[in-house]
Amino acid sequence: MGEITSLERRDQNFTGGKIRWKRPQGGFIKINFDGAFDKNQNRSASGVVVRDSEGQILLSCTEIHENISSAFAAEAIACRKAVQIGTGKGWQFLIFEGDSLAIIKKCNIKGPDRSMIGTYIHDIKQQIYGLEKIRFQHAPRSANNLAHIIVTETLKRGEEIYLDMGVPEYAEEQARYDVRNEPD
Length: 184
Hints:
Elements: E1 4-5, E2 29-38, E3 43-51, E4 57-66, H1 71-88, E5 94-98, H2 101-108, H3 118-128, E6 134-138, H4 145-157, E7 162-164, H5 172-180
Parallel strand pairs: 2-5, 5-6
Antiparallel strand pairs: 1-2, 2-3, 3-4, 4-7
């Protein structure tokens, strides 16, 4: 299989001493997302993990996309998938969290985006139009590791997932780590 890249080189190992995932407060649902990109095959994958204010996983899913031109596009597509899931479920209090600062900034800026991913950003903004309790926030890799693990494995294995109330077996240890070692 070709080289798998993201916007930055990332490590799947647990993240001792770094910023960690934190559960949402006040009845919000947090949707973490990540994109992975295989430049040799022009393929990407989107990974999404949804958790409630108790830290419980509500669902995890991944999708594989063909004919994708960049890691930047892969991250935008992953964000769009996260928004589709959150708004599609009818949830009203949503935090979308990803490790691509550029994507988060584009989602938070008013007005059109004229970059190469502008159509994805436009789709995202259309889906959230009129919803008031939605936030996009950046998380470092160490706080987004669960989404990273499932998306990277999806691209390696070539298998998409959709699981209610859990994550694939290969990511269960990270899911437990996130809740057990959550900062105060």
